């Protein structure tokens, strides 16, 4: 029983640490959203493709994505793809929720460590609930980002004609995948702590039964 408890809390600790690492990498990298522009016969020195993170946009042609199709110049500014107020609101929600989840994860990891050393079912259950709450923040941030990006893509498709869209491929990047993985690990860490709390509770009942039997 003691060995099983040790394995469970160790797994929970490692899972929580990996979750923090993946979320930190996701927040700090610029591959949340990728736009690949494959315009034929493009011989210019600049790359037409771009990728973006939570804090900045890496554009191939500076501020604009420049499509030269049928000798016509089509420019669109990414900050104008959505209503400005809605865009700023959604962006603020994302950049608040995800860093907040990252900070809460650090506190949750410390709380989980103390609870594991104390072998208290109540503390372990509280730690598990706290970690699951962190996962809720992460899930909310990622969901809002996906909603924001989908709305931007819908607006882009409305502005640009279908024949011009042939040269543009839009996809989510590996930074978003890291955020999803972090969320999954947060849930796993919370469930492992709940399992540890249950093991501790069963062990307490067993020890109480043994003590009563010896009287």
UniProtKB/TrEMBL annotation:
Compartments reported by the entry: Membrane
GO cellular component, one term: apical plasma membrane
Pfam family, one: Claudin_2
Gene3D superfamilies in the record: 1.20.140.150
Principal localisation: membrane
Residue ranges crossing the lipid bilayer per the database entry: 7-33, 90-111, 123-146, 166-185
Entry keyword set: Membrane, Transmembrane, Transmembrane helix
InterPro entries given in the database record: PMP22/EMP/MP20/Claudin (IPR004031), TMEM114/TMEM235 (IPR039951)
Membrane-related topology note: Multi-pass membrane protein
PANTHER family: TRANSMEMBRANE PROTEIN 114/235 FAMILY MEMBER (PTHR20516), TRANSMEMBRANE PROTEIN 235 (PTHR20516:SF1)
Protein name: Transmembrane protein 235
Record organism: Fundulus heteroclitus
Highest classification ranks of the organism: Eukaryota, Metazoa, Chordata, Craniata, Vertebrata
């Amino acid at each position: 029983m003691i060995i099983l408890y040790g394995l469970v809390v160790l797994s929970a600790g490692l899972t929580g640490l990996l979750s923090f690492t993946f979320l930190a990498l996701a927040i700090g990298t610029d591959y949340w959203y990728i736009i690949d522009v494959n315009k034929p016969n493009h011989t210019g020195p600049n790359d037409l493709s771009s990728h973006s993170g939570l804090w900045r946009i890496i554009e191939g042609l500076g501020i604009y994505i420049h499509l030269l199709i049928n000798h016509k110049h089509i420019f669109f500014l990414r900050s104008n793809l959505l209503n400005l107020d809605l865009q700023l609101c959604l962006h603020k929600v994302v950049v608040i929720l995800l860093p907040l989840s990252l900070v809460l994860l650090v506190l949750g990891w410390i709380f989980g460590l103390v609870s594991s050393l104390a072998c208290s079912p109540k503390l372990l259950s509280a730690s598990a609930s706290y970690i699951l709450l962190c996962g809720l923040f992460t899930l909310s941030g990622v969901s809002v980002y996906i909603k924001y990006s989908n709305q931007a893509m819908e607006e882009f498709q409305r502005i640009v004609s279908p024949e011009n869209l042939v040269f543009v491929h839009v996809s989510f990047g590996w930074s978003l995948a890291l955020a999803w993985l972090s969320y999954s690990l947060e849930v796993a860490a919370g469930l492992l702590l709940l399992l540890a709390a249950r093991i501790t509770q069963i062990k307490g009942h067993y020890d109480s039964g043994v003590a009563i039997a010896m009287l």
